UniProtKB/TrEMBL annotation:
The chain crosses the membrane at residues 36-54, 88-111, 123-144, 151-171, 177-198, 210-235, 241-261. It comes from Candidatus Kentrum sp. TC. SUPFAM superfamilies: MFS general substrate transporter. This is Major Facilitator Superfamily protein. It is a multi-pass membrane protein. It holds the Pfam family MFS_1. Keywords: Membrane, Transmembrane, Transmembrane helix. GO terms for cellular component: plasma membrane. It is found in: Membrane. GO terms for molecular function: transmembrane transporter activity. InterPro entries: MFS, MFS_trans_sf. Gene3D superfamilies: MFS general substrate transporter like domains.
Length: 266
């Protein structure tokens, strides 16, 4: 549940950005470039505040005397890379986050050109999907704490989210808002990846940090690769919005859900 709350706050910020960044905030700060400068500077300030105020609780238990440790990063990552479940979770993170970033960054443009929506309507539809993602991150992470196996929640969420995104891309009716909500809400299940990682065999307190870093890093790699593929190939097709639904919805989310069924669980 704690992971769900943290990720929901991330989604909350994203939904506000979709609603106001291209209209209100950009105009207020003299263009998108100045807005990005402001957001970047704010992130740096928050990082320094976090470093200055957060204390490692393990140091307090040890009398505030840090225990030196020999760096074993390479060896730890090599051992984790041999773990089949870690590799599967890395691929799920790659596909799901890549699909989310790729689709959310491209859909407003395609909805405006292919479906005739106004820029504000297209952004509001994406904001609706993001708000739904916030709710899904909270509800589904809570649900995963109550079921016997988190894999069931991750599997169902990714598959339903992929189908919702696909239907959003092929739908040309008033039901687009429903598919956007379904895509976002079910997609909130991806926050379960981190607590699920801590439940697979071979992951303990000695290597959990490196494992989380590997899975998160692969997710960010997907967030880089998917938009590149979309810009290079999908936007040049005749039915680009439908192709986007197949690529991000079926290949991204749905495949990620199917892969979750291969994870071991202790």
């Amino acid at each position: 549940m704690a992971i769900g709350i943290l990720q929901a706050l991330f989604g909350l910020a994203g939904s506000v950005a979709f609603m106001f960044s291209g209209t209100v905030f950009s105009s207020a700060f003299g263009g998108w470039r100045n807005l990005l400068y402001l957001l970047g500077a704010g992130s740096i300030i928050l990082a320094f505040l976090w470093i200055a105020t957060i204390r490692d609780p393990s140091l307090a238990r040890q009398g505030a005397v840090p225990i030196p440790r020999r760096p074993m990063v390479g060896g730890t990552i090599t051992r984790l890379a041999r773990n089949r479940d870690v590799r599967i979770l890395c691929l799920i993170s790659f596909l799901s986050l890549g699909a989310w970033i790729g689709a959310s960054g491209t859909l407003p443009f395609l909805l405006k050109n292919a479906r005739g929506l106004s820029p504000q309507s297209a952004n509001n539809l994406m904001s609706l999907a993001t708000w739904s993602w916030v709710m899904g991150a909270l509800v589904l992470s809570y649900l995963s704490d109550r079921v016997r196996n988190r894999i069931y929640v991750l599997f169902s969420g990714c598959v339903v989210s992929g189908l919702g995104l696909f239907m959003l891309c092929i739908s040309d009716s008033t039901l687009t808002w429903l598919w956007a909500c379904l895509w976002g809400f079910a997609g909130g299940a991806v926050v379960i990846i981190i607590p699920l990682l801590l439940d697979v065999p071979g992951i303990d307190a000695r290597n959990s940090g490196a494992a989380i870093g590997m899975v998160s890093g692969m997710g960010n790699l997907g967030a880089f690769v998917f938009p590149m593929v979309i810009a290079a190939f999908i936007l040049n097709t005749d039915q680009s919005i439908i192709t986007l639904g197949i690529f991000c919805g079926l290949l991204g989310y749905t495949l990620a859900g199917l892969l979750s069924g291969k994870i071991s669980y202790r």
